[in-house]
Amino acid sequence: MADKHLAKNYFSSERKDMKFLKGFTLVALLPFWAGYAFALYNGNSNNLSNYSLLILAFSLMNFNAICGVEKIENKVLNLIAKLDGVLFFIWAFVTIIQLLIK
């Protein structure tokens, strides 16, 4: 019984530490999307590749928040997560279509 209580406290404290990281990565996705759009506009394929990898990594770190499985307490971060989720799935769909066409 004590093990369950200690494990519960351990995971809850770990969860509190991850709130800052989740908020930071959700907010960091917005400039990455802007950089991706700017690189797409300029036709810079090297930057497109770099931004794609950053977007993929940060989106996978926040996949539960982006897909709506996990609700964030902050309304602004929740809205940013939904926006990032929509952009991510549109980007993934367009990327798959481009690969199939080529």
UniProtKB/TrEMBL annotation:
<protein>
    <submittedName>
        <fullName>Uncharacterized protein</fullName>
    </submittedName>
</protein>
<feature type="transmembrane region" description="Helical">
    <location>
        <begin position="81"/>
        <end position="101"/>
    </location>
</feature>
<keyword id="KW-0812">Transmembrane</keyword>
<feature type="transmembrane region" description="Helical">
    <location>
        <begin position="20"/>
        <end position="39"/>
    </location>
</feature>
<keyword id="KW-0472">Membrane</keyword>
<feature type="transmembrane region" description="Helical">
    <location>
        <begin position="51"/>
        <end position="69"/>
    </location>
</feature>
<keyword id="KW-1133">Transmembrane helix</keyword>
